[in-house]
Amino acid sequence: MASSAIDWDDLRLVHAVIEAGGLSAAARRLGTTQPTIGRRIQALEEKLGLVLFERRNEGYRPTAAANALVPYLARMAESAALVHREMQVQADHGDGLVRVAGSSWIGRFLVERLARLRESLPSVEIAIDADGRPPHLGTGDVHMAIFRALPEEPGLKSRVVCRSNYAIYGAHNYVKAHPAAVTDKRFTLCDWVIVDLERAPDGKRENWLSGKIGPKVQVLRTTTTATLLGALEGGAGVGMLPCFVGDASERLTRISPVIPEMEHVYRLFLHQDIARAPRVRKTAEAIAALFNADRALLLGRAAAKVGR
Asked: Which of 44, 68, 78, 301 would be a feasible disulfide site paired with 296, CB 3.0-4.6 Å?
């Protein structure tokens, strides 16, 4: 082994690949590329004189030497995260970037109210990650997350910020042409648009629908919420939406009451260390106030009557 010092960033890549289960997942988590990680790991192996990963068709598999390093790498990663979080807090003067993660519907809610958020946070730059992937809040790269639940992580704290109800919607013209849409016969006589259960990050609504939609019904399966909304507004059929989305659309008619079983309770998650930063704390309060201000819309109580 060469006498030169080992760069912690290289060890961090090794730890990330082992923890994430592969190069692609590690690259997404670290915001870099697979080739970059691969090159740096190869250079580290040459420096150490060790083979840390077996290169297989299905991906990188850690060797016994790499697995032996895991406990030490984990402690180094936690120590580095602690330093990073504390540096962020100490350097915080109430302004700068705050990155918020959430589902695509939560991202839509925040983006549509961005002007109000900016008005209450003039010195804060907001970034919204709405791809639905749960973040690791302990790293400090994402400052807060709004999800129904997150994997357990040391130091996380959370509070309920909203309850979001769902109902069934269809385009005005589609509902007019299909009278069954406003009755329970919609499940066997109408076309449906749903998020593909196999690809859905949260399949709760699709599971609820799966036992109700008839076997001969035409079903369009989509992979994004934007496509789901676009298909419904375009008249492809009927489908389930959050009330704050469906009731706000001028092209849709609500054709069912609120569905109690579909209530989504969202929590705002913060790491207890990052939560001490002034800009993060005031952003969390401003976002909570946004949800509270539109509570009636989220619950489906601000819409015109069903079948308007």
From this structure: 301
Domain range enclosing 70: 8-89
79: tokens are: 């120590």
233-246: burial string, b at 16+ Cβ within 10 Å, e else? bebbbbbbbbbbbb
User: Do 83 and 105 lie in a common domain?
Assistant: no
Whichever domain contains 141, its CATH number is 3.40.190.10
- 141 and 286 assigned to the same domain: yes
Q: How many residues does the chain have?
A: 308
Taking the CA of residue 187 as centre, how many other CA atoms within 13 Å lie in the half-sphere pointing to its CB? 9
- Asked whether residue 222 falls in the same domain as residue 293, the answer is no
Give the phi and the psi of residue 91 in degrees, each rounded to 5: -90, 0
| Total number of domains constituting the chain | 3
Within this chain, do residues 235 and 201 fall inside the same structural domain, yes or no?
yes
- Each residue's pLDDT tens digit in the chain (308 positions)? 444 567 778 888 888 898 888 888 888 878 788 889 989 999 988 888 889 999 888 888 999 988 998 888 888 877 777 667 667 666 666 678 899 999 999 999 999 999 999 999 999 999 999 988 888 887 778 889 999 998 888 889 999 999 999 999 999 999 999 999 999 999 999 999 998 866 665 555 567 787 788 888 899 999 889 999 999 999 999 999 999 999 999 999 999 999 999 999 999 999 888 888 888 999 999 999 999 999 999 999 985 545 44
Tell me which amino acid residue 286 is: A
With tokens 């609120």, the residue in question is 258
